[in-house]
Automatic annotation (TrEMBL):
<keyword id="KW-0479">Metal-binding</keyword>
<comment type="similarity">
    <text>Belongs to the sugar phosphate cyclases superfamily. Dehydroquinate synthase family.</text>
</comment>
<feature type="binding site">
    <location>
        <begin position="71"/>
        <end position="76"/>
    </location>
    <ligand>
        <name>NAD(+)</name>
    </ligand>
</feature>
<dbReference type="GO" id="GO:0009423">
    <property type="term" value="P:chorismate biosynthetic process"/>
</dbReference>
<keyword id="KW-0547">Nucleotide-binding</keyword>
<dbReference type="InterPro" id="IPR016037">
    <property type="entry name" value="DHQ_synth_AroB"/>
</dbReference>
<feature type="binding site">
    <location>
        <begin position="129"/>
        <end position="130"/>
    </location>
    <ligand>
        <name>NAD(+)</name>
    </ligand>
</feature>
<dbReference type="GO" id="GO:0000166">
    <property type="term" value="F:nucleotide binding"/>
</dbReference>
<feature type="binding site">
    <location>
        <position position="184"/>
    </location>
    <ligand>
        <name>Zn(2+)</name>
    </ligand>
</feature>
<dbReference type="InterPro" id="IPR030960">
    <property type="entry name" value="DHQS/DOIS_N"/>
</dbReference>
<dbReference type="GO" id="GO:0005737">
    <property type="term" value="C:cytoplasm"/>
</dbReference>
<keyword id="KW-0520">NAD</keyword>
<keyword id="KW-0170">Cobalt</keyword>
<comment type="function">
    <text>Catalyzes the conversion of 3-deoxy-D-arabino-heptulosonate 7-phosphate (DAHP) to dehydroquinate (DHQ).</text>
</comment>
<feature type="binding site">
    <location>
        <position position="247"/>
    </location>
    <ligand>
        <name>Zn(2+)</name>
    </ligand>
</feature>
<dbReference type="InterPro" id="IPR056179">
    <property type="entry name" value="DHQS_C"/>
</dbReference>
<dbReference type="Pfam" id="PF24621">
    <property type="entry name" value="DHQS_C"/>
</dbReference>
């Protein structure tokens, strides 16, 4: 088992990574404030993984309730969040009852937000079951829901007490979802880790074949990188914004097309290409760099062309981004391959990037 520590002064926690962690309740039990948990999952994940988790917890004398939500980005809403509150109140869950998120990023983000606000805060644990959730969403404490006018617009920074990334759960992940997770994996290479980007170029076939040692290495490396960035800037006052590489464009794609039409990771892949084209417009990265990024994304089964929404629609959607400051849209750009920064773009540069990066 690999363990990455997220060293936040007020809320340090472990991220454990290995196969078959789901039933290792000795990792969970010492963290509980009372022998009672509520597992939040969805209609796809629960039939696969709820019973082994619940059986193991109950065998350790921990009382379990479960809440099964509908599956999909389109359900990452206030209405679904309310279903969690309804169930918590109906079961008379208390302040010391721990919520466990069992699923991908949608379940993790919603369960974390429910934990942040139910009775003004109850403990929660992340058990991520998608690659995307294991490398990104379960770590760092960004929780929330979508609004029709923008992605993740309602939420809170609220840290889990533990993350259990069971690599065996990735065996059942649909290929399209594996690819979507790979977008965030590649993101870590582009943010500030050229050596990891080069490792990905050499090992992408092994990752797509789900070789355990390759997946274990990638999940650990991504979690180490994210833990370092979040520990230095938990609430995104500065460097944490780098984790948004590809997201200014990507979130516009997700909300512009309608949530769930493109998966988050797919939108982020196309968004990273748009960020790369903008960076090339600024003479910061080369044609060769662009080809390397595109080749890696294609090998991961990801889209490299963004959908045509129209220049004005992109600009309008991006004007809702959470990084907007005094009306100015901020982008994560590439200084060179494997080094990124937060900056602004002229309207002409944005349009030039969209012209190259959108499918005709
Ligand atoms: N909080 C953060 O820091 C952060 C980071 C990145 C993404 N996100 C959010 O995460 C969400 C995307 O997460 P996601 O890609 O995990 O999507 P998801 O949660 O929708 O899961 C993808 C699909 O895979 C299914 N699934 C999950 N685990 C499975 C398994 N082991 N076997 C078979 N099917 C399984 C799910 O039911 C779903 O249909 C987006 O809402 C995004 O905004 C948040
Ligand atoms: O943890 C972060 O910080 C991230 O930005 C990770 C992103 O991959 C993730 O999609 C996040 O939810 C986007 O953040 P947002 O603040 O733009 O909603
Ligand atoms: Zn993301």
């Amino acid at each position: 088992m690999q363990t990455v520590k997220l060293d936040l002064a007020h809320a340090p926690y472990d991220i454990h990574i290995a196969r078959d962690l789901l039933t290792q309740v000795e990792l969970i039990k010492p963290l509980l404030l009372q022998p009672r948990v509520v597992i939040v999952s969805n209609a796809t994940v629960a039939p696969l993984y709820l019973k082994p988790l619940q059986d193991a917890l109950e065998a350790a004398d921990i009382q379990c309730h479960s809440i099964i939500l509908p599956d999909g980005e389109v359900y990452k809403t206030s209405e679904t969040l309310n279903l969690i509150f309804d169930a918590l109140l109906t079961e008379r869950c208390e302040r010391k009852t721990t919520l466990i998120a069992l699923g991908g990023g949608v379940i993790g983000d919603m369960t974390g937000f429910a934990a942040a606000v139910y009775q003004r805060g109850v403990p929660f644990i992340q058990i991520p079951t998608t690659l995307l959730a294991q490398v990104d969403s379960s770590v760092g404490g960004k929780t929330g829901i979508n609004h029709p006018l923008g992605k993740n617009m309602i939420g809170a920074f609220y840290q889990p007490r533990l993350v259990l990334a069971d690599l065996a759960t990735l065996d059942s992940l649909p290929l399209r979802e594996l690819s979507a997770g790979m977008a965030e994996v590649i993101k870590y290479g582009l943010i500030d880790d050229l050596a990891f980007f080069e490792w990905l170029e050499a090992n992408i076939e092994r990752l797509m074949a789900r070789e355990t040692d390759a997946l274990a290495y990638a999940v650990e490396r991504c979690c180490q990188n994210k833990a370092r960035i979040v520990a230095g800037d938990e609430k995104e006052q500065g460097q944490r914004a780098l984790l948004n590489l590809g997201h200014t464009f990507g979130h516009a794609i997700e909300s512009g097309l309608g949530y769930g039409v493109w998966l988050h990771g797919e939108a982020i892949a196309a968004g990273m290409m748009l960020a790369a084209y903008a960076s090339r417009e600024l003479d910061q990265i080369s044609d060769d760099d662009i080809e390397r990024i595109k080749t890696l994304l294609l090998k991961a089964g990801l889209p490299v062309k963004a959908p045509v929404l129209g220049h004005e629609r992109y600009l309008d959607l991006m004007a809702q981004d959470k990084k907007v400051d005094a009306g100015k849209i901020k982008f994560v750009l590439m200084q060179c391959l494997g080094e990124s920064y937060v900056g602004e773009l002229s309207r002409d540069t944005i349009i030039a990037a969209l012209d190259v990066g959108c499918a005709a």
